[in-house]
Amino acid sequence: MKTDNHEVVFAIVNSGFAEEVMDVAREQGVRGGTILNARGVIKEDAAAFFGITLHADKEILMMVVEKDIRDKVLNAIYKEMGMAKKAKGIAFSLPVSDVAGLAGPVKAEEKAE
After folding, report:
1. Which end of the chain, N or C, is less surrounded by CB atoms within 10 Å?
2. Is pTM beyond 0.85 here?
3. Taking Cα atoms as reference points, which of 54, 60, 91 lies closest to residue 73?
4. Contact between 8 and 93 (Cβ < 8 Å)
5. How many alpha carbons fall within 13 Å on the CB side of residue 4?
6. What is the distance in angstroms between the CA of the first residue and the CA of the last residue of the chain?
7. Does residue 111 sit in helix, strand or coil?
8. Is residue 14 within 8 Å of residue 54, measured between CB atoms?
9. Would you call 85 exposed, middle or buried from its count of C-beta atoms within 10 A (0-12, 13-18, 19+)?
10. Which residues contact 85 (CB under 8 A, 6 or more apart)?
11. In terms of Cα–Cα distance, which of 57, 8, 16, 55 is closest to 34?
12. What is the DSSP string of 69-98?
């Protein structure tokens, strides 16, 4: 199904924090997501330059969200799980052009059929 109403929000956090990110996102109206295990890589001199410690084990949380809640989801993740927090998280969104398999709320006219 073609859509211009959805975006995918990615949150990359230190291992063990993805469930907390999902809790924050749910409070903003997100229904679910997918967690992937990952390993971060960064040059040691870059880590020193940015003043961050290297924590290689990461989790990536992917959530397909409606555009109208995207900004509040990103802001909530940043506030609760950003680089200044233990999760050391970053979050960003990308547009979604096609969606299949999403179960949304049933509209009144669909219930009647």
Report:
1. C
2. no
3. 91
4. yes
5. 0
6. 20
7. helix
8. no
9. middle
10. none
11. 8
12. HHHHHHHHHHHHHSTTSTT--EEEEEE-SB
Tokens for 86? 């233990």
Look-up: residue for tokens 């990952």?
Answer: 38
pLDDT digit string (tens) for the chain, length 113 residues? 666 789 999 999 999 999 999 999 999 999 999 999 998 876 677 666 666 656 679 999 999 999 999 999 999 999 998 888 888 889 999 999 887 776 655 444 544 44
The amino acid present at 53, given as its one-letter code, is T
- Which structure tokens are listed for 35? 């967690």
Q: Give the whole-angstrom CA distance, residue 30 versus residue 56.
A: 27
Residue 24: strand, helix, or coil: helix
> Which two tokens mark 99?
């969606």
DSSP state, 36? E
Query: Does residue 47 sit in helix, strand or coil?
Result: helix
Residue pointed to by tokens 């009647």: 112
